[in-house]
Amino acid sequence: MFLLLVVVTASAWAQTTGTSGEVENVFPQARALYVDVHQNPELSGHEMQTAEKLASRLRTLGYEVTE
After folding, report:
1. pTM value > 0.70
2. Rounded to whole angstroms, how far apart are CA atoms 38 and 35?
């Protein structure tokens, strides 16, 4: 899970020009997602809300998500 969050954050960062201002814009969103996922744990194999949140975030970054 954490690895996926890192990949999403890194991907968003890579799609920008790399300026520190843009990184500062992405980090709070990634942190908020990380905190939300960990404040609302789900049983292994039943991560429906977590999957929906991550899929939504990936779509906003322009990725096609298959559920």
Report:
1. no
2. 5
| Residues 6+ positions from 46 with CB-CB distance below 8 Å | none
Tell me the per-residue pLDDT of 47-67, one tens digit each, with 9 for 90 and over.
Answer: 899 999 889 988 988 899 987
Spell out the residues 6+ positions from residue 37 whose beta carbon is closer than 8 angstroms to its own: 1, 5, 50, 53
* Cα dist from 12 to 20, 44, 46, whole Å: 13, 27, 27
Domain boundaries, the chain: 2-60
| CA gap 3, 13 in Å, rounded | 15
